[in-house]
Amino acid sequence: MKTGDNKLRNCFHSPIDIAIIKAKELSYNLPEGERVFVRKAQYQFGWDFAPRLLGCGIWKPVFIKAWNDIDVKYTEINQKTLNQLYAQLSLDILLDSDSNCNISIEIIDSKSNEILLLKNQVISIGESIINSEFAINNPVYWWTYDLGEPYLYNLEIVIKKNQKVIFSENKKIGLRTIELVEEKDSIGESFYFKLNDKPLYIKGSNYVPQDMFPSRVTDNQYRKLLGKAKWSNINMLRVWGGGIYEKDVFYDLCDSLGLLVWQDFMFACAMYPGDDFFLTNLENEVTEQVKRLKGHPSIALWCGNNEIEEGWNNWGWQKQYDYSYSDSIKIWQDYEKLFHSLIPEILKKEDTNSPYWPSSPKFGWGREESLKYGDIHYWGVWWGMEPFEKYKEKVGRFNSEYGFQSLPTIGTIEQVMPKDKLHLKSDEIECHQKHPKGFETIDEYMKRDWPVPENFEDYIYVSQLVQAKRKE
């Protein structure tokens, strides 16, 4: 800032143009091409459930912050140990001061008015990191709604200088332990979660962004959708890696409703660059998101990516792109740098309270190992055209992705197209089918158990009956 007029200018370049420039810097092509060079929501480049609609612009709050005396840059409360007698926690504060001075730091449990921490601190000019430890006696645990109460403490952090409050903040925290149990057994190796040392049966669903343009989703839409998830007996949502790191309201609601979150990092179905510039950017991205989200008791697992290891090993990329031996080695090394080195190192530093899983699934659904180890994305039904009865045979240790498509209700479709286009042969209806063989697949499964209606509304209804049978 300077005295007088100031102008703040934001320039947005075409993500496609930038991606093309970046792609030309490599001597080989990466699977999925342009999208892997741009840190935008990957589904906006087009998916089997989504059109290609690339947004552009600032879509989250932006502000200029001015301060005098002391600026508190961030506060963190981290859980160190937890047992039935006490919870040991730490408060980390980063602040910037324009002078040497004394301050007091206080933490108050707003529900009981108990003072959990009262500390005087001498700070020096410039930036300071202050670490303080405190305890909560006889802690109340946070549980998923099906096992107990998702209890949240409301802690008020107050910083004073010369008895004057210069900063205050409320933080809601939940006290819990979460463990991913992988133990050798008669089948292969287990894969299940323990919450507060109690085995938890997961009833879950995958979650993708609610809109092609996420800025349009209101807080009320989040409340409505997550409330329906709980009503449906879901206790875990997997935030899929081709979407976005969700807004704070999403995780706040999961905390209060007692829903766990399997959190993918935003990488899906492609190989990504491994140059220093790209990895430095990703280090900032991952660090920022982990620091933002780690305090939520709902975070049950950090997952590196969606289906990349399966893609590299099973989808024929190396043959399709005619990689040389050295190219294959380089691309795989870049993968390992990101998902087996960079991300685990950040988590080791920032969050040791939730486990890490490098890639979902561990093995592709066509391999025998997929039923014995890790998680599985079972797509034998739908992609493989296998009968629904196969679900009873192909039971993985943890089914983290599977599904079947149906058409939405007629009321939903009427919102986006005129009535004279509401028939299966209309170009508009076909345009909304982003799966290459979507209607063909629905028809095939429908013929096995039902007559295929000619009336459009009847067809919608029967497609939903077919989908419901998949869920039995």
Residues in β-strands, percent: 15-25%
How helix-rich are the residues, as a percent range?
25-40%
Count of beta strands: 17
Radius of gyration: 25 Å
Please outline the major beta sheet: 5 strands, parallel
Shape: globular
Strand order of the largest sheet: 11-12-13-14-15
Low-confidence stretches: none
Structural notes for this entry:
The chain is of the alpha/beta class and 472 residues long. It contains 12 helices and 17 strands. The protein is globular and about 80 Å long. A hairpin with a 2-residue loop joins strand 6 and strand 7 (164-173). It has helices at residues 15-23, 219-231, 248-257, 276-293, 308-314, 317-320, 325-350, 390-393, 410-414, 427-431, 438-449, 456-470; strands at 70-82, 86-97, 101-109, 114-123, 126-137, 153-161, 164-173, 178-181, 192-195, 198-200, 204-207, 236-239, 260-264, 299-303, 356-357, 376-377, 399-401.
Quick description:
The protein is α/β, with parallel strands linked by helices. The protein is built from twelve helices and 17 strands.
Topology:
Layout: H1 15-23, E1 70-82, E2 86-97, E3 101-109, E4 114-123, E5 126-137, E6 153-161, E7 164-173, E8 178-181, E9 192-195, E10 198-200, E11 204-207, H2 219-231, E12 236-239, H3 248-257, E13 260-264, H4 276-293, E14 299-303, H5 308-314, H6 317-320, H7 325-350, E15 356-357, E16 376-377, H8 390-393, E17 399-401, H9 410-414, H10 427-431, H11 438-449, H12 456-470
Parallel strand pairs: 11-12, 12-13, 13-14, 14-15, 16-17
Antiparallel strand pairs: 1-2, 2-5, 3-4, 3-6, 6-7, 8-9, 9-10
